Amino acid sequence: MALLGQLLPLALALALGPAATPASPAKSPYQLVLQHSRLRGRQHGPNVCAVQKLIGTNKKYFTNCKQWYQRKICGKSTVISYECCPGYEKVPGEKGCPAALPLSNLYETLGVVGATTSQLYTDRTEKLRPEMEGPGSFTIFAPSNEAWASLPAEVLDSLVSNVNIELLNALRYHMVDRRVLTDELKHGMALTSMYQNSNIQIHHYPNGIVTVNCARLLKADHHATNGVVHLIDKVISTISNNIQQIIEIEDTFETLRAAVAASGLNTLLEGDGQYTLLAPTNEAFEKIPAETLNRILGDPEALRDLLNNHILKSAMCSEAIVAGLSLETLEGTTLEVGCSGDTLTINGKPIISNKDVVATNGVIHFIDELLIPDSAKTLFELAAESDVSTAVDLFRQAGLGTHLSGTERLTLLAPMNSVFKDGTPPVDARLKNLLLSHMIKDQLASKYLYHGQILETLGGKKLRVFVYRNSLCIENSCIAAHDKRGRYGTLFTVDRVLTPPVGTVMDVLKGDSRFSMLVAAIQSAGLTETLNREGVYTVFAPTNEAFQALPPGELNKLLGNAKELANILKYHVGDEILVSGGIGALVRLKSLQGDKLEVSSKNNVVNVNKEPVTEVDIMATNGVVHAISSVLQPPANRPQERGDELADSALEIFRQASAFSRATQSSVKLAPVYQRLLERMKH
Description:
It is found in: Secreted, Extracellular space, Extracellular matrix. With about 675 residues, the protein is an alpha+beta fold.
């Protein structure tokens, strides 16, 4: 009966499956990285961890999967070494690290993990060693020997010259009066130290790195009989000031202080939370042209955007950055934060002059260059950082520069520099009017534009929006880069000079002598009214040369049959507007005749039914005209291309199938559909 009582719970657990058993707690990022290091080291024996060592330094990192294959930390090469995982040691003559480290009190554990300097300084105080050897439960963040050695000489002298006050207080600040393992070290938490209950800031990053006041945990979770030891790479000091208070006491932040006060962000920077402030120094502000700086400082919204662009949404210590990261600011911009050796970079630039100043509500890095977001810039300033400098220079020469630097809400359509590779047009009244058509009233965002939307320009023109599968176009110009949204204006980089529509399709054709024969044909076919009325047409317009290239007599025959002429001309007209920028690898465009046109684009050459288009995007109020050098023939006029006509081989197959059917099943007639098909193929 006793045995049955033991088996029943086991059977019940097996029957219910994994869902019935308590789920194991999720591993912390640090534990996952340690697990990966152990996995990579298992070939060398039990409890062996693979460690990446930065060449030329003593820095070591437990490796995650990405770092394992890249073999780099902050762009610098590493070598893989294998050593005992935390808590284990070697046994002479045996493979790996089979033995657990002896469990001793905290004082002796400091020596076991190699924190002998911390152990030595503990010994020098009167009170601390007895505590570490006695009963209780403590956590020690023990600085490594190298951490103590790297302290400035005057700081170290101050500590060791007054061991029972300064040194004791410093060591107590590294202690917590309870056992805290890495799975409890949560990102952004604060632990109460044993020095005047001062807080220690903990950050636990997704890449497995854990920091304590921005000092990195080197080896963690070394258990002792009365607590746990974590080895860290720096001697940490108490923090009592929030970010705002640090700004107020640092001389190099005089301009920043005034800017924060004017923007009202001091409430945020002295409140609760965990932020990273990329704090611009006085030097950073001095690098900005006085006109730009005064404009931003005098504009509360631009100033707030500027400062918010220097605040990251979470605390980011430099030790946590081992490769490039995309981090979002409070302003909404994404900054690329990276590192090169010991140097931190922002958007690829080494502009951080002082790092890891820890505050009660985050961390500060000093920077020597302002990070001005697009939202605080004029259109001129946006264009200066884009591939549209030639176009903007034309706007300036045409006397339109005030629109690009003022407070007018508008959207600028700026052609890329490559559009002008063959030269720029003369600056005259005609060009000025054309450029005015590149300035749209109101500040737009491309993601909110819709097909058929009408936009009004500063020149009074009406422009249409065309949305295609892979492109967004305004008339014949398609957007070639992401929007740049400034303080008052938005910059759309476009792939060509925009040509506003002038007149209907018929007006366009009549106004161009190349199409005189086409115009006569349209009039003969009675299609003039169709191409004059409101609509959305794409006309592939054969030039005079195209008609003249027709075989002798065919043109006269065509012009003498109004119905056939209308049929062919309708085949040249698509029932929607398709500009060249909206053409992908292949677009099938339905014609007014009913059949579909096959329009393709490759290497900037547009073809219709495999015939080249000689000129694209002649815009009209009711469509677009593309010039072609041949007259297109509808499928019905091309019997060799009829889809229902089979090749000789197919006919032979059907004949053989028919003969086989008669020989084997003479009483069975062919199904009517096959009979009709064979009859049609005989003619």
